[in-house]
Amino acid sequence: MIMKNNIIKILRNITLPAIVVSAMMVVLILAPGCGKEAGGAGRMKIAADIVPMADFCRAVGGEMVEVEILVPPGASPHAYELTTGQMRFLADADVMVTVGLGLTPWAEEILSKAGNPDLATVAAGDAIPVAQLIPAALHAQGGEAGEAAYDPHVWLDPNLARYIITAIRDALIQVDPQNALIYRENAAAYEEELAHLDAEIRGEMATLSSRKFIAFHSSWTYFAARYGLDQVGVIEEQPGKEPSAGEIAELVEKIESQGVRVVFAEPQFSTRAAEAIAEESGGGVVVEILDPLGDPDDPASDTYLEMMRGNLAIIVEALA
Prior knowledge:
Blueprint lengths: L1 H12 L4 H13 L13 E5 L2 H11 L3 E5 L14 H9 L2 E4 L8 H8 L5 E4 L13 H4 L17 H18 L4 H26 L6 E4 L5 H7 L2 E5 L10 H14 L3 E4 L6 H9 L5 E4 L14 H16 L1
Parallel strand pairs: 1-2, 1-3, 3-4, 5-6, 5-7, 7-8
């Protein structure tokens, strides 16, 4: 703005026809600014479906962005209803970032209701090569048409999270190209953090005496595949659908026959079924809580990196 005012003063001192000077001044006054302002009112507004996606957006955008989390801590992303305030934020947002891959099946519907045709959308999971995606459990079993083809919990593998960072970076550059260098530098720095996290996890995994576990549902499939753990079974093949007596009996049999020592539950869901399975397994089986989503108000999981390190500590203690 300072530079623009100086140019206007110069124009006034140049001997040109008045109509030419006036026209040039109007163009300068109406011209857009130089991109978003760091920490200012002009920050890019981003709506992110879950806490880790919001943290990724802040890591890439830094002070240039304002991020709204759509699914709050403790809620399940699979079946969440947005509040009126969240819909208002979406109506005025610049970017919406979701995991995609069927994690939030309501996302497409709310986009049509937001009334924001200029909203740039990013389904970050689409940036991950198909060869690195794992088929969703129901899809692999020949589930009904419309079921997600791939497991959506890709962010729990730090190596796949690097693809997500790239997708977010490119979206922010598209919306705000003037600050492309900032977004590139932030993304590169965060990708280094993810590489350090990956190395840390690999080092801890080498110390384990057991690698088998039962999960509440398929959240940890990618993590297990990346780091050599054995997910023997899941309590809920479909989120929100409690296991039948027969399915519980099958899980108990797997625990006893394969020497599973731990059942990992999640804070977003009741632990009742996990505790029942552990109890019926004849003792020696513990229930531990792994959080795949994190909580910005909890210092132990207020960022993706802290969340992952907190979960890593629990996994190592349970399987040591």
